[in-house]
Design brief:
Length: 109
C-alpha cells in the first residue's frame, strides 16, 4: 500500500462514501419529497458517523491499532458527501442506474 501522508484518510473517505451511498439508498425513494430527502440525509450521516465512532472505539481494544479522530472526520466527510451527491450519482452513472433498475425489476417478481 502506498505510504504518503494522508493516504489512509483517502481510503477512509472512499470506504465511507460507498457505505454512505448504501445507507442513503435504504432511505431514499425514487420519488421522495424534499422533506423525505433531508430526513434521509440526516439519517445517513447520523448512522454513518455513529458507526465510524464505534469502529474507532473498537480499535482502541485491538493490540497494535489506535483510534483516531481524524479517521472519524474522514469517515464523516465520506458519508456526508455520499448522502449529498446520491441523487446526482444515481442519475448520471450508467452502471449504477442500470443496476438499480435491474434490482427493482427483480424485487417486483
Amino acid at each position: 500500500m502506498p505510504s504518503f501522508w494522508g493516504f489512509d484518510k483517502i481510503i477512509h473517505f472512499i470506504e465511507y462514501y460507498i457505505f454512505g451511498y448504501l445507507i442513503f439508498r435504504c432511505f431514499a425513494g425514487r420519488k421522495s419529497s424534499p422533506l423525505q430527502e433531508r430526513q434521509a440525509i440526516l439519517l445517513t450521516i447520523g448512522i454513518g458517523v455513529f458507526y465510524s465512532i464505534s469502529d474507532e472505539w473498537h480499535q482502541s481494544f485491538v493490540p497494535g491499532r489506535d483510534p483516531s479522530v481524524w479517521d472519524v472526520f474522514s469517515d464523516a466527510l465520506g458519508v456526508a458527501f455520499a448522502a449529498l451527491t446520491f441523487q446526482g450519482i444515481r442519475k448520471q452513472v450508467g452502471v449504477i442506474k442500470w443496476t438499480e433498475e435491474w434490482l427493482e425489476r427483480r424485487k417486483r417478481h
